[in-house]
Amino acid sequence: MKPLTITASHVPAGLVLEVAGDLDYTNAQRLRHAAQETALPPGRRLVVDLSELEFCDSSGITALIAVRNHALATGSEMVLVAVPAGTRRLLHMTGLDQVFDMRDDPRSLTGR
């Protein structure tokens, strides 16, 4: 099991949350709190970079939904980038691939 790390950084388009390690029932609440604790002005973008995500269970998926709902409630959009194959498969099986905006390259959204 890899410990979860969440790194927040501001970019011109909005905010990037880099999620690394295992996102599961033991720590999914940390992702929710990370999104809620950062100021995201209306019209900005929240980019959740999953390029270093090792594992994601149903609690992690639920946390991603909560983060998306939080972004929408603030008048912002949320984009998942570099979604690992296993997580992408879970999102597809649940139909959430139709809900989340998923992109492959985080640099195209963050300017980094």
UniProtKB/TrEMBL annotation:
<dbReference type="Pfam" id="PF13466">
    <property type="entry name" value="STAS_2"/>
</dbReference>
<comment type="similarity">
    <text>Belongs to the anti-sigma-factor antagonist family.</text>
</comment>
<dbReference type="InterPro" id="IPR036513">
    <property type="entry name" value="STAS_dom_sf"/>
</dbReference>
<feature type="domain" description="STAS">
    <location>
        <begin position="4"/>
        <end position="112"/>
    </location>
</feature>
<dbReference type="InterPro" id="IPR003658">
    <property type="entry name" value="Anti-sigma_ant"/>
</dbReference>
<dbReference type="GO" id="GO:0043856">
    <property type="term" value="F:anti-sigma factor antagonist activity"/>
</dbReference>
<dbReference type="InterPro" id="IPR058548">
    <property type="entry name" value="MlaB-like_STAS"/>
</dbReference>
<dbReference type="InterPro" id="IPR002645">
    <property type="entry name" value="STAS_dom"/>
</dbReference>
<protein>
    <recommendedName>
        <fullName>Anti-sigma factor antagonist</fullName>
    </recommendedName>
</protein>
